[in-house]
Every structure is written in structure tokens, then in C-alpha cells.
Amino acid sequence: MSLVVKSISKNQQNESVLDNVSIQFEQGKIYGLLGRNGAGKSTLLNIINNRSFATSGEILLDGTSISESEASLNHLYLMSEDNLFPSFFKIKELFKITERFYGTFDWALAKEMLHKFGLKADQRFKKLSTGYRTITKLIIALSVPCEYIFLDEPVLGLDATHRDLFYSYLIEVYQQRLCTFVISTHLIEEIATLLEEVIVLHEGKLLQAASVETILQNARTVSGPKEIVEPYITPLDVLGQKSLGGSLTAYVYGPLPEEKIEGLSILTSNLQEYFIQLTSGKED
């Protein structure tokens, strides 16, 4: 079941929020949707899940526009900061509502997660802290029978222990069901080991879509004396530079010269470092 974002644009108040964004999501992968504040990530997720409407373009699930097929939406689930649930309902009532909408619900998983996170099914949603409201929404997201699950800032308000527990459950569900997860978050370093594919939005445009493996094979940090680093990086794709005294650190992307240069340090950049340099460089 393929999900295609086809030439999506979104204008609000005469400003472009998304500009001709096209992405194809493959089933059975974990994607990271990355971008700085205002890049258009949440807007894109809302459009994909039919909570907002594009100015132009379309979202296709197996070739059918989701805006023309209500049944298609049963294959998609978006967990976001928005509280769409009736706040006066108990947690178990929210589970039942979700089950009626999607047809089935993984009650065994939901009950296990409630226990592990220290929640009770008869607690009222409105009386929960921000962190526990997030946990409730995450339990629902992992328990719905959807092929595509979108998580927009999924660990808002969670402490480190609860975040780690959530990531463990996400991997467990992914391995059991081979559904597709699309995670939008600023905590790049924390989720880097989970991701297989990365999509980078910048100022409403698609800046890059690539596998994590490809990025890590091509992103390098080159450092050393300025007089050695500068001629070395001249023919390369330089994302950014930092100088300190007589030393220079450059962030480059792509193949490197085979020749070894004495005095140079060349290291693989991590995903967060690469993202920072990639998007910062676009400000110039």
C-alpha cells in the first residue's frame, strides 16, 4: 500500500506554507520528518491526514485520493499536540471510541502500556498532566490497526525514562506489524538510531529525502589547520564552516578525494549535526 504526496502546496494569508512538496512513503519503514520551526511539518501531516486542505496537489493512497475516499483514512493515523478527544472522557472510553472508528484496537497492548507507564484506565483525560496526556495519545497511536502512523512531536512532556519506554514499544509494534511510522521531532539525536529514511523540509520546500545510510555515508566533518583544510574542501560541497584561531572545521557532503592529507581529521557527521549544517547553510 503506497502513500504518495503529490505536488502539495499550501498558502495561508497570502504566504506559502508548503511549496510543491512531493514525497513517496514506502510501507514498512520508519521515517524522520525533520525541519526547523515553521518549516511546514505539522501542516504537511495535517494535509496527509485530511485535517487540513492543500491549495493544490493531492495525497494518494494506492492511487486513490484520500479526499475522495473516507475508507482510505482508516489506514492512516495522526497523533499530534492537538487534543481532539473529549477531555471529560475516561481513558478506557477514549480507547472504545477509537475502536469503533477503526474497527479494531489492540487492547492487550494498550493495557500493558497503561501498566508500564503507571496509568489507570478509569482516569479522566482532562485531569492528566501534559506528559500523561501525551502517553495516552501514544498508546492509542500504537494500538490502532493502521498501516501508516504519523507522530507529530510524540514525546512532548515526557521524561527520559518514559521516552525510552515509548521508543521500545514503537520498535516492538513496528517489528510485529511492519507498519510505517513517520516521526516529526526536534530530538533528532534521540531518534536517529530508529530511523531508516529522512525527509527534510525547509521553509515549506522539500530539501532532501534520503536514507539514513546514504546520509551517513556522505556527511563528513573535516578539521585541521586552516591552511590545510581550505584547499582540501574547495572542490567539495561545503554545508558550513567554523573557525577557531588557526583551526577550521568544515562540514561537507559527498565523495571525498582518495588522497590522504597529513594533518587533516575526517570524521563521519551524526544525523543531528548534518541537519543543523544543512538547514543553517540555506540561510545564506
UniProtKB/TrEMBL annotation:
Keywords: ATP-binding, Nucleotide-binding, Transport
Gene3D superfamilies with a match to the protein in the record: P-loop containing nucleotide triphosphate hydrolases
PROSITE patterns reported in the protein's UniProt record: ABC_TRANSPORTER_2 (PS50893)
The ABC transporter domain, residue ranges: 3-228
This protein's record includes keyword Glycosyltransferase: no
GO molecular function, a single term: ATP binding
Name this polypeptide is given: ABC-2 type transport system ATP-binding protein
PANTHER family with a match to the protein in the record: ABC TRANSPORTER ATP-BINDING PROTEIN ALBC-RELATED (PTHR42939:SF1)
Source organism: Candidatus Enterococcus mangumiae
